[in-house]
Amino acid sequence: MMRxxxxxxxxLIIGAIAQNTYSSDPPGIAFRLTPYYGIAVxxxxxxxxxxxxxxxxxxxxxxxMARTPDxxxxxxxxxxxxxxxxxxxxxxxxxxxxxxxxxADVIHTKALLASLKxxxxxxxxxxxxxxxxxxxxxxxxxxxxxxxxxxxLGLYQASRIVSTxxxxxxxxxxxxxxxxxxxxxxxxxxxxSAHWFNIGLYTIGEMGIVSSVEGFDVSSPRIDEEDQPGxxxxxxxxxxxxxxIGMELPRQLRHLILYGDDVYNPVLRDIxxxxxxxxxTMTPHARxxxxxxxxxxxxxxxxxxxxxxxxxxxxxxDFYLNAPSAPGCKWRSKxxxxxxxxx
Length: 343
Prior knowledge:
CATH topology of the largest domain: Nucleotidyltransferase, domain 5
Shape: globular
CATH architecture of the largest domain: 2-Layer Sandwich
Distance between the termini: 29 Å
Structural class: alpha/beta
Largest sheet: 6 strands, mixed
Number of domains: 2
Number of helices: 12
């Protein structure tokens, strides 16, 4: 009798856990923050990526993103919040919309991320607990603000913030890679959007590994330039005239990757043609580079690769068992098993 009751109790426990477990691997979630809007993408177990939302940030968010990289927060911390910093972490557990001790930059970024989160959860029909963020420059104050904003929504980062341009390079990497002991291939990525541009320089090494280039300092987007085509032309010329040590540009470039919400503007091609000329002539190499450039068909392409990365990470064994989550997040969701952190 006791053995039968014990078996029944054990079966009920297993059944209760199983009911909270998603029938397939949880999807990967990626949020990209641009100077003007945010993007949400989901990557599923069947290797498909779904563009969920492209939502414009508020004027305050856009003003924050337009500030120079070394400019710190515009808000001041009150005396109460300096004395009681824990107040800054109460809003999520209390399900409150009041940001008691959060500076203005975090509040504006949190509002955009909240809209992306809501769109994602509406598509999935349940709440999410994890996401990966991508920004143009993950090393700036803006990245720190975005990280705080994500945490204020009760979401944990599945990985550190990733570089947007690097994700586009990974998404459009060539099918071939350098041979064994061959020098890595330099790759130029240009983001040309309606309100900003950005330049990324990377190398592709053995096994297709994409790496940043040491000594390359053009990494933050140039936003709302009065003469954007002229500013991009000057930035590219500066890069080609002062390349990183040991690199000759544009002669050594192996691939050109173009993306952005205004990437098909013919002005971009005109600029690239102009800066890649050797004097008055266009070399065969430069002509081939422009002809064979990989042009992104959608602003969702880079974030789709980030979502795929999120899927791989969040379905790893160690993450599956030990990743932290906000209180009760996994219990409320249909996506995740109950890890140790919520038992």
